[in-house]
Amino acid sequence: MSSLIRICVESTAQHFKAHRTVMLIIFLPLTLLITLSPSFPIVIAQGEGTENIQVWGSVGSNPGQFNNPAGIVLDPKGYVFVVDSNNDRIQKFTSNGTFVDEWGTAGAGPGQFNRPIGITLDYTNGHVYVTDTGNDRIQKFTSNGTFVDEWGTAGAGPGQFNTVIGIDEDDDKQNVYVTDIGNNRVERFTNDGLFVSEWGTAGAGPGQFNNPGRIALDPSGNLFVADFGNNRIQKFDENGNLITMWGTGGAGPGQFYNPTGMTVQFPQGNVFVADSGNSRIQQFDNSGKFVKEYSIGENTGDITNIDLDVDSDGKIYLTDHGLDVIKVISP
User: Fold this and answer.
1) Partner of 58 at 20 to 30 A CA spacing, among 33, 64, 95, 129?
2) Which DSSP helix (H) or strand (E) runs through 4?
3) pLDDT per position as a tens digit, 169-210
4) Which of 126, 135, 143, 138 is nearest to 91 (CA)?
5) C-alpha–C-alpha distance, residues 94 and 126, integer Å
């Protein structure tokens, strides 16, 4: 089992369409971090430049607490949706961390979850899509958590999954794209779950994958895939034709060691990648040209920053599964 799957799926591990910007790790004792109120974020430190770093959440299963927070996404009203993976639920917050709602329990029925990981929104209709990874399916909800639909079964055929991870939705064409990590492919569906197409095979060549993880669409409908095991990013058009790719294993600019979270900034189209093994975020332009990197602290040997999103004011929201908190960085 790969590092990405293990971190995202195993409960015993110790461990507006933005999907879009930077993150930093904060050096504080865990005992202090777990006492922070999920409803009242606290400015912890100054980051690079003038960024303020805030933290909300703590370890646990009560409202506002987390056990391996994974996917995160903001809606146009500023609400923050977090996949609380090991608690098998989705939690909804205001932008300042005040708990609003939650849904989901452990199981395989409608509205239940088995280690969910990815999340995205349909900004036109307000639907929430979740990769229910352990159940090898996609579930669709209203923004208040009412179950709408589901699709997918375990397998390797069209519309089946073997550990579904990343997900994003194209509002203009109402398509949903997901990464089927165990089958090393991307699958494309209508937003009602009808299979449209797929691409990718196992390997290191152009258009091939080694554990594809997070995905993100840009304003033109092109799809970026974090090719985790190959330490690179690949960019495709909506039909799966390769446009460009960049990255090799390493610690230099434009190199990666286990890229996890990824986001595209709207409307600029810049790509931000959580280069977790190198404890940094790297920023690229839409064609993959390196722009800047942001430190996220000392490398602990664990992949702790899983996903990120950014609001219209440039605040970055990221999930830290290692500390079971949400971090917010204000520019």
Assistant:
1) 129
2) helix 3-9
3) 998 889 999 999 999 999 999 999 999 999 999 999 999 999
4) 143
5) 16
